[in-house]
Predict the structure.
Amino acid sequence: MRKVLDLGVAAILLAAAVVPFWLGRFFPFLDMPQHLALAAVVSHLGDSATGFSRFYQIDPHITPYWGYYAAMWLFGHFAPLELANRLILTGYALGVPIAVGYALVSFGRDWRWAVFSVPLVFNTNLFLGFAPFLVSIPLFLWALGLSERHLSEPALRLRCAVSLAVASMAVFLCHVETYLLLGMCVLILLAVHGQGLRWLAWRGAFYVPSLALFVTWAWRSFVNQDPASKQLHTVHHETFGTLRDLGAVYEPWRIVWSEMPRRLMGAFTDASDQRIFLAWFLVAWIALFACYGSCDGRLAAREDTARALSVRGDERTSLRARLRALRCDLLVMSLVATYLFLPMQVSVQWYVNARYLVFSALALPLLFARRPTGRMTFLLGASAAIAVVACANAGLKMRAFQRQAGDFGAIAAELPRGGRVLGLPFDKGVGGPVRLWPFLHWACYCQVAAGGDVGFSFAGLPSIPVRYRPGMQAPHPYEWRPDQFDWASMGSHYDAFLASGRPQGRGGFELIRHAVVVAQSGPFTLWKPRR
């Protein structure tokens, strides 16, 4: 009966995590329109009606974002792209708690502690719209659980090993930063489980396929760069650069510490998600104390050590066994260290260490060595209540954003088919429920609806499998500064202009002087050149 109840609660929480993604057409996710538009290019490049082939070409080489775009291409055969993207995000929302539960079981923990992962589905990375990175999160957790099983078992299990090889390749093909994080965790597990060079060669062989993908990409991106590659990148971005000039940028410690809560859960304007995180943190801290600070917790830790000492009879010293018993502690501390000590930016890649913070929080239940029995079941109940509140709050914010964005229908009806539209985000959407500039890349929805091109695109960035054809990217203002729009040098390249909010500054004056409004919907106006 208890098991049925646990599974029922788990099903309810999974459903609650999914519901917010189905409460409106548009997502208040910063970079999501860019990824959605480039997925449209990948899926419909050969369709002459879209005009994509005039502007873009597909990079045939290995790039780390192919996992997301290939999934969109596959789902796009059966559903409209916006629905395909919604299905992938639904898989992400389901995958995070399920993958945490799988990792917990793999490390000998109780799967019910995965309830702590449900509020983290709505972490700040989601609202920044890092679509490929989001997909990589559950894949990382799956690969981590498989790695523990693969390396801890006395005998090699082929099914687990093959699954591990597939999972590690999938992690790389979604995001290289997540793959490097997985590599760090695997090195820790190899160190605590290792049994000599022969064992290392046999068990490590199943990581070679993903490592080959990584080395192939890294060699081309950092060592043997194509001299003409810079011509294929956007105006304001270059290649990663060589290994000698990555240009790491660190933040002051006071920012690293003070911004930690907002970088984990801090996307909403009213700070309601930060209050939810505070409750989550309090319950997680109590659970951690129960597993470490109490007498029962210390007993559970000693039992972990005893089990580790008795796993193999050929242990030469107890140090390796004690490290094995502390492997979860080592993993969690290492994940926290990636946020504290890695740079905020490397070359063109921004938000490096901050996005790793979610892995630390998701891995925290690995430290809960005790089973949630007796009074500890109240911690499960409290965390489940927090999860429901977090899901409901995210759903309310999604609904509020639909009212802020409008239906966009009048705009879509007037878009030039296969033409070029310049986005001018005078209003970046920060006055709504989400503070992370949800209107910044909104013009990319024009590509989804009518094909063609936009002024600023992620096409050509080093991790993106889409490139501009030589000479086909139009001049445009910096996407954060629409006031820099200049009609004389930029206006003639575009068939229409999508403005959010009231045109301001010199760029707004230029737009009003040379173009006329042809459609309006919510905060958006579509302008076309005066005849």
